[in-house]
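Worked example 3 (structure in, sequence out).
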């Protein structure tokens, strides 16, 4: 039985980059991973309504730079930067290091897989029908320029006795094409009937990178060098006999 691998992990090194950008020795490696986990969990709980898509963490010595990709940067910054200063102090207490926070705005949240999953989960918690929420998200994503999208909801849908899964898929979604920009998002909706899971895959198109190597020329298109000798066609009759 085949299982789907994470599209982000599959494309790291090709068109995707790591979410944690740092190097460490064996003694410090586990501690850095634990700190990254605590930072992401704290931001996720603190700014649950800020539409945070992903958190990228960079380290340079004792300094940590936290890049927050969000659709609502004003919620993170706060009035006159009060909230972002408070967040910097709180993260500094967790890690005991100097923290720099860089919020970056997501201009089109309708095509971000993680934000789509969070939006559907929020609607499910408000007792909106899951089919209506899924179809609305698909229409918004396709109108925003997505090449393909798939949404899957699992759990006790509409309060049913038995848990099941239902999914909708529109457009192209080549999961095995490395150059295809496939995004994956997951969110959970806490309802009175239990916990519902929402998974979203989106295809933003193919990414083609031009690789130019220095000193490399195309021999097929290279012009022929003219010499003082003329090219004479070879005739078998003129060949010497043994």
């Amino acid at each position: 039985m085949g299982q789907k691998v994470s599209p982000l992990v599959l494309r790291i090194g090709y068109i995707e980059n790591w979410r944690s950008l740092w190097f460490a020795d064996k003694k410090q490696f586990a501690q850095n991973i634990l700190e990254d986990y605590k930072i992401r969990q704290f931001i996720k709980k603190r700014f649950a309504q800020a539409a945070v898509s992903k958190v990228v963490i960079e380290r340079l010595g004792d300094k940590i730079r936290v890049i927050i990709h969000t659709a609502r940067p004003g919620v993170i910054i706060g009035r006159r930067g009060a909230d972002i200063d408070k967040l910097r102090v709180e993260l500094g207490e967790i890690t005991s290091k100097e923290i720099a926070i860089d919020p970056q705005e997501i201009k089109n949240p309708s095509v971000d897989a993680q934000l789509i999953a969070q939006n559907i989960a929020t609607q499910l918690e408000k007792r909106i029908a899951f089919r209506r929420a899924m179809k609305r998200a698909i229409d918004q994503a396709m109108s925003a320029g997505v090449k393909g999208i798939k949404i899957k909801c699992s759990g006790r849908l509409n309060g049913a006795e038995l848990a099941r899964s239902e999914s909708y898929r529109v457009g192209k979604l080549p999961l095995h094409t490395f150059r295809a920009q496939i995004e994956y998002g997951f969110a959970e909706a806490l309802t009175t009937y239990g916990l519902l899971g929402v998974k979203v895959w989106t295809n933003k198109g193919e990414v083609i990178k031009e690789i130019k190597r220095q000193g490399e020329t195309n021999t097929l298109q290279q012009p022929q060098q003219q010499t003082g000798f003329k090219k004479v066609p070879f005739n078998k009759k003129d060949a010497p006999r043994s």
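Notes: The helical segments are 7-10, 26-46, 73-77, 82-95, 113-125, 130-143. The chain has six helices and eight strands.
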